[in-house]
Amino acid sequence: QKEVEQNSGPLSVPEGAIASLNCTYSDRGSQSFFWYRQYSGKSPELIMSIYSNGDKEDGRFTAQLNKASQYVSLLIRDSQPSDSATYLCALKGSSASKIIFGSGTRLSIRP
Amino acid sequence: KAGVTQTPRYLIKTRGQQVTLSCSPISGHRSVSWYQQTPGQGLQFLFEYFSETQRNKGNFPGRFSGRQFSNSRSEMNVSTLELGDSALYLCASSFTGTQGGEQFFGPGTRLTVL
């Protein structure tokens, strides 16, 4: 089982709708979780970080963490074409301090 | 506050050569991590330096090495380049390091090995 799993996509969502990106992880002791957005040919950009169970909202973005079920998700409300990118889920595992990245989900917002 | 900078942005080398990449972190950040990104393997962790000491290391051969200077700037070196080393090399800085801290990426150095 991969340490961090994401559906590679592409996930196609109509403009104005809610995009839902999911990530599951294997290490129950993981404490810190991050979502990055990466446009083609660019470097990853930190969107959200979440450390405790529940929801964390920042503008159109909401991160949700459920440690019991070992998943973290990112919701994007009122999706815009500029949201089309690859979204990387990352976490800090319990046994090592390095950050582990998922392989990313490609999101496409269709007008 | 200026972001993470990386130089050079593009490099073309031939097999067997060596290369040195440079990263300047955000002012005040003491941790620098290096990643290799390829279409097939995604984002792979190389190593992390914190206060001039290597704190974590990924599963890469010894041809990949790095160091950090007292001003937190970091360099990464790859010796005896192979075709498979062609990738985007990303540097990320953090205040506290990968121990829970948020990381901010530089623009990357795209290395092509011919």
Can you give keywords for this protein?
heterodimer; A: 111 residues; mainly beta; six-stranded mixed sheet; five-stranded antiparallel sheet; B: 114 residues; seven-stranded mixed sheet; four-stranded antiparallel sheet; 53% strand
* Mean pLDDT metric of chain B: 93
Q: Helices and strands of chain A, in N-to-C order?
A: EEEEEEEEEEE
- The Cα radius of gyration of chain A reads 13 Å
Q: Shape of chain B from CA axes?
A: globular
Radius of gyration of chain B: 13 Å
Distance linking N and C termini of chain A:
36 Å
- Termini Cα gap of chain B: 37 Å
The secondary structure category of chain A is: mainly beta
- Low-confidence residue ranges of chain B: none
Classify the secondary structure makeup of chain B into a structural class: mainly beta
As a percent range, the share of helical residues of chain A equals under 10%
Instruction: Tell how many strands the DSSP assignment of chain B holds.
Output: 11
Plain-language structure description:
The complex is a heterodimer of chains A (111) and B (114). Chain A is mainly β and 111 residues long. Chain A is 0% helix and 55% strand. Chain A has no helices and 11 strands. In chain A, the strands form 2 sheets. In chain A, strands 2, 4, 5, 9, 10 and 11 form a 6-stranded mixed sheet that branches. In chain A, a hairpin with a 2-residue loop joins strand 6 and strand 7. Chain A is globular and about 45 Å long. The mean pLDDT of chain A is 93. Chain B is mainly beta and 114 residues long. Chain B is 0% helix and 53% strand. Chain B is built from no helices and 11 strands. In chain B, strands 2, 4, 5, 6, 9, 10 and 11 form a 7-stranded mixed sheet that branches. In chain B, strand 4 and strand 5 form a beta hairpin. The interface between A and B is medium-sized, with 22 and 23 residues.
Give a short synopsis of this structure.
The complex is a heterodimer of chains A (111) and B (114). Chain A has strands spanning 4-6, 11-14, 19-25, 32-38, 45-50, 54-58, 61-66, 71-76, 85-92, 99-101, 105-110. Chain A is mainly β and 111 residues long.
